[in-house]
Specification:
By secondary structure, the chain is α/β, with parallel strands linked by helices. It has a domain of 151 residues: 3-Layer(aba) Sandwich (Rossmann fold). Helices cover 28% and strands 26% of the residues. The chain contains 8 helices and 10 strands. A 7-stranded mixed sheet has the order 3-2-1-7-8-10-9, with helices on both faces. A 3-stranded mixed sheet has the order 4-6-5. Helix 2 packs across helix 3. The protein starts with a helix and ends in a 9-residue tail after the last strand.
Length: 244
Amino acid sequence: MKKTINKTLALFGLRLSRTRNDVAHQTVRGLAKNEIDIVLDVGANTGQFAKSIRRANYQGKIVCFEPLPDAHEKLKNHFVGDERVLIHPRTALGNVRGSVQINVSGNSVSSSILNLLPAHSDAAPESVYIDTIKTDIDCLDNVFADYVTPENRVFLKIDTQGYEWNVLNGAELSLKKIDGLLLEMSLVPLYDGQRLWKEILDRLEREGFFLWQIFPGFSDPISGQSLQFDGVFYRKAPRKTDTC
């Protein structure tokens, strides 16, 4: 049936196609609309986000940052042969340079520099910490120029389990050169000392961004309460790129 319809539509220069509406394809449509050609994936874990946008046909460069040893090794293995994916040496990103202890959760993805709160562990028992490791930590401002040129259109994804505010604090200069962001934003405290969604929203609006997309995230499986969502932001006005 589809072939028949397309043969008819072809007479008018048209073609029937299915528009994928999953999170990855919606995200990539935003990247394309805003002409993003490099994505900085902070808190990449084993590359779930990078793989999803690659499968959704994002063709630009991706730079991944991940502090957990096991996840970092899997991250490297996943992208062997893809020259457009760069894996930064194992380190956390925050607002200081040095070393830090990171709490390792049973499910890996909930690992954080911050302490887990009962609202999180009660809703996801597999997130309980099982170990701690020492890792290097740095600021995005210190490594930004290693990967980004003035001509690049930059998208920053931050998934650091409550540590997003600290990553932003270490990216005050970089943020002026960034065109879009995706952040995991909490509606209730899940990690000790984290900033909640409204503070992050207000901060990014002051920086000249507006909320572009919202994707559902982590929720309590018993009560159904939403606990986190992913917020995508782009600049209200196009950022001026440096010219010679």
